[in-house]
Design goal:
With 131 residues, the chain is α+β, with helices and mostly antiparallel strands. 40% of the residues lie in helices and 15% in strands. The protein is built from three helices and six strands; from the N terminus they run H-H-E-E-E-E-E-H-E.
């Protein structure tokens, strides 16, 4: 009876064993590759004597003085926006608070940042009436 089963199901058994071999080979090659990649990454501790709070306080902060100055306008990317600043578009005469929903519609390359409302008004901009 066992020989009869092997003779009738031989092709399916062969395919199943082949599938298992491919599965095992793929798993172990992926595992070995991932181990190789993690071993290549080095972690460098620049100053192991600093505590977390000392390290954070030693990092430079983004200030108005560190903004990129392009001609007469100060611009920064979204990730560098300063809370409490004011934003206008190059194509408008209206300025907005940084958290205004309209600011999201201004293209990054058209944004002008001001440190105060007075600075914006001195440059001829008017505050958005909805604010």
């Amino acid at each position: 009876m066992h020989m009869n089963f092997i003779e009738t199901q031989g092709e399916k058994i062969f395919l199943f064993i082949g599938f298992l071999l491919v599965l095992i080979t793929g798993f172990f090659s992926g595992y070995l590759f991932s181990q190789e990649q993690t071993e290549k990454q080095e972690i460098v501790i620049e100053n192991p004597n600093l505590s977390c709070t000392e390290f954070i306080s030693s990092q430079p902060e983004i200030t108005l003085g560190s903004l990129i100055k392009r001609g007469d306008e100060q611009e920064v990317s979204n990730s560098e926006q300063i809370m409490g600043s004011f934003v206008a578009s190059k194509n408008s005469t209206i300025y907005h608070k940084a958290d205004c929903t309209i600011v999201k519609r201004i293209k990054d390359e058209n944004r002008i940042f001001f440190s105060s409302a007075k600075e914006a008004e001195d440059r001829g901009f008017k505050l958005h009436s909805g604010e």
